[in-house]
């Protein structure tokens, strides 16, 4: 287990923070019980008005982090603090109040809405649940750049981009302080992805909402995020400001993600990895989770988990071989 990656910055100013956050799933039978760990002792924080990017390929554990933070999953171990209160195990009315303040936007705008209810019905319900007089259906649609006429339509009559805007409006109806956005643009046409990110940034400025922005795309993370966290095999492997991480990625996996990002200026060459393969999330996995794919792997990488090292005050990495890369 790596040491606390947030220590130099501190967790005191955080709206939401996680300390040693762990989610496990028991697998197999009683006679051959195994554990899958998609979130493995993660520590990080999210401040007011901040956008934190969480980047990693499919299978890295990103969606499990999102579901833990919104309490769809109950953490197996660790703390989650919202304004200082531990919300990892709360239930009942306390959990309802927490979920009001920490909303989630899912990846698939086509399955996020009830196909049998109009846009108006789907926006009215959260407004009625908390007796919200700050917004109306008309003002919510206007806030996300949609025409008021769309409120009488069913989801199948809307485009993917329009549906995702409705999903964002539904989240905003509850006056959230944090939105956990799980790959919110990955299923949308390339031509409208930037407009959705621009909308989310506008809502951040107008309503002081913070985001955990989850993506596999370094380019969009750089565009939208203040800081980026790189996740592999359930472990955080690097944290830095978005510009710093793009310019000077220190972990071999961060370099791999950056090399895989489309860039017309970059020369086409083999991706910096030894072999392909999904992250190993089993509890029995030893050493660095990226070791089997790493070009700079050391013998120690297969045995021990790398500790957290700060390159600068705001740029940290968990890697034994970092000194051999540059």
Derived structural class: alpha/beta
State the order of secondary-structure elements, H for helix, E for strand.
EEEHEEHEHHHEHEHEEHHEEH
Radius of gyration: 20 Å
For the biggest sheet, the summary is: 8 strands, mixed
Assign an overall shape: globular
Please state the average pLDDT score. 90
Which regions have little confidence, pLDDT < 50, spanning 5+ residues?
A: none
Provide the number of structural domains.
2
The percentage helix is 25-40%
> What distance separates the N and C termini?
25 Å
Q: In order across it, which strands form the biggest sheet? A: 6-7-8-3-9-10-12-11
| CATH fold node name of the largest domain | Rossmann fold
CATH class of the largest domain: Alpha Beta
For the secondary structure, the number of strands is 12
Number of helices: 10
Look at the structure and name the CATH superfamily of the largest domain. Answer: P-loop containing nucleotide triphosphate hydrolases
What's the architecture of the largest domain, going by CATH? 3-Layer(aba) Sandwich
Provide the β-strand percentage band: 15-25%
Put the structure in a nutshell.
The chain has 326 residues and is of the alpha/beta class.
Account of the 3D structure:
The chain is an alpha/beta fold and 326 residues long. The chain has two domains: 46-63 and 90-225, P-loop containing nucleotide triphosphate hydrolases (Rossmann fold); 228-326, no CATH class. Helices cover 28% and strands 23% of the residues. Strands 6-7-8-3-9-10-12-11 form an eight-stranded mixed sheet, sandwiched between helices. A hairpin with a 6-residue loop joins strand 1 (14-27) and strand 2. Helix 3 (119-129) runs parallel beside helix 5 and helix 5 (160-172) runs parallel beside helix 6. The mean pLDDT is 90.
